[in-house]
Design a protein that fits this description.
Helix content is about 35%, strand content about 30%. It has about 250 residues and is α/β, with parallel strands linked by helices. It has two domains: about 1-135, Response regulator (Rossmann fold); about 140-249, Beta Barrel (OB fold (Dihydrolipoamide Acetyltransferase, E2P)), CATH 2.40.50.1020. A hairpin with a 4-residue loop joins strand 16 and strand 17 (about 230-235). The longest helix is centred in the middle third of the chain and has 33 residues, at about 105-135.
Length: about 250
């Protein structure tokens, strides 16, 4: 959930925005509201928000003054004002959007969609950094996993796993010797088990061992060629992360 604050001197603006968020903006929760700069500072320190909808002019100062008092800003800003006179200044404060008052339902929804998209991208980059950090600290050499089937219990080195492929509630584990083991676990369980050892989710149906990637076709929309010559599609939202991964390897 995106923790949201509304800092505006007018109660009707707060109520209008709250109604729009409640009706149309899933994933956003209003943690509180404030009328003045002083109240806003207290509320920010108390709630540690992800987003602030901030009026340029408050009763005891400006929204810019409020931001100047915050040394380490980790939240997004959407400014509100009666005109566009402060729009350029808002850009200098890295505002994600600028809403004219009286607030329009469509403008609020569009602004919050921008916030949601940016947070999703930043979260993906954070997960990639975590993956790289874990991968650097925990090599798969020697790491073994137990794969249970109806008839057998297989002990397999992670380095011999080329990829894992979803098959409903089952997962096909493809090995370096061209064999495959079908296990009654879904792909999500394998992702949680093997991510720290170099296997990366590149598609809702595929988990690949980055040590077995031979090529990545960027122009094809995202297609990985593995060491077993299999061609694995890459989802649109994973493509950018994968390119960044290759650049850092």
């Amino acid at each position: 959930m995106t923790k949201t604050l509304i800092i505006d001197s007018e109660k009707n603006t707060e109520e209008r925005i709250a109604g729009i968020i409640d009706g149309f903006c899933k994933g956003f929760i209003i943690e509180g509201s404030a009328r003045t700069l002083k109240q806003g500072m207290i509320l920010i320190q108390k709630t540690q928000p992800d987003l602030i909808l901030l009026n340029v002019m408050l009763k005891d100062g400006s929204g810019f003054e409020l931001l100047n008092k915050i040394e380490d800003r980790s939240f997004e800003i959407v400014f509100m004002a009666d005109n566009r006179d402060f729009a350029y200044k808002a850009i200098k404060y890295n505002a994600l959007d600028y809403i004219l008052k009286p607030v329009d339902e469509k403008e609020v929804i569009e602004a919050l969609l921008k916030v949601a998209e940016k947070r999703k991208q930043e979260n993906s980059k954070y997960l990639l950094r975590s993956f790289l950090s874990n991968f650097a600290g925990q090599k798969s050499n020697g790491k073994k996993v137990v794969l249970k089937t109806t008839d057998d219990i297989h002990i397999v080195e992670v380095s011999n796993i080329i990829r894992c492929e979803s098959d409903g509630s089952y997962t096909k584990v493809h090995l370096a010797d061209s064999s495959q083991i079908v296990v009654s676990k879904n792909l999500k369980e394998f992702e949680e088990l093997l991510t720290d050892y170099g296997l990366l989710r590149v598609h809702h149906s595929h988990l690949v061992n980055i040590n077995h990637i031979e090529r990545f076709h960027k122009r094809s929309g995202g297609l990985i060629i593995m060491s077993d010559k299999s061609e694995i599609p890459v989802s649109v939202r994973k493509k950018e992360n994968l390119i960044e991964l290759f650049e850092k390897m």
